[in-house]
Amino acid sequence: AQKVTQAQTEISVVEKEDVTLDCVYETRDTTYYLFWYKQPPSGELVFLIRRNSFDEQNEISGRYSWNFQKSTSSFNFTITASQVVDSAVYFCALSEIRNNAGNMLTFGGGTRLMVKP
Amino acid sequence: ETGVTQSPTHLIKTRGQQVTLRCSSQSGHNTVSWYQQALGQGPQFIFQYYREEENGRGNFPPRFSGLQFPNYSSELNVNALELDDSALYLCASSPYRLAQSTDTQYFGPGTRLTVL
Hints:
The complex is a heterodimer of chains A (117) and B (116). By secondary structure, chain A is mostly beta strands. Helix content of chain A is 0%, strand content 52%. Chain A has strands at residues 3-5, 10-14, 19-21, 24-26, 32-39, 46-52, 59-61, 64-69, 74-79, 88-96, 106-107, 111-116. In chain A, the strands form 3 sheets. In chain A, strands 2, 5, 6, 10, 11 and 12 form a 6-stranded mixed beta sheet that branches. Chain A is globular, with a radius of gyration of 14 Å. By secondary structure, chain B is mostly beta strands. In chain B, the strands form 2 sheets. In chain B, strands 2, 4, 5, 6, 9, 10 and 11 form a 7-stranded mixed beta sheet that branches. In chain B, strands 1-3-8-7 form a 4-stranded antiparallel beta sheet, with no helix packed on it. In chain B, a hairpin with a 2-residue loop joins strand 5 (44-50) and strand 6. Chains A and B meet through strand 5, strand 6, strand 10 and strand 11 of A and strand 5, strand 6, strand 9 and strand 10 of B.
């Protein structure tokens, strides 16, 4: 069975600090996808990134960067120079490929990030 | 391009009642998934619909059922409501194109259900 663990339930930083959100996953499949979503207080899950299990290249998008390490089953997310608008709950999710059986997302418990001015 | 929309925004029901939640998928998307998110937890997969048929189900009892319509919109029905059904119900749509693929799911704003 697949599982996603986000050990940090809550992180508090001061604006302009860098912060890393940890994600560890478990799966028996060799082909899978990993995601990060942001959930602001409004409740809607906002898609941030999707990576497949064959692509271990790190990715950078503006102040956001992701570090995928298959050897440690981790997919960590770093926000550089955090801003108050980054305050939200962040979810890591895993999707395995199923033959005509849907592509369900398995989410971690989320990390609440609070960025103080 | 219109995103995923859900209605109603909030709903209050009493134990034992039935509820129907609605979702319109993003333009060009043919697959709809439903998730339940209890307070302080991550979303849990309920089921997915593709071509008007259930295409995968999570660990939820049969009193959770759904429909998908020819325009790809979807309904989630919950019968015999229990207090533990109080949660944020999220709908997500995606362009399911291949049998062995997984596309990004884009979420709506959710329906907050309170069962008293």
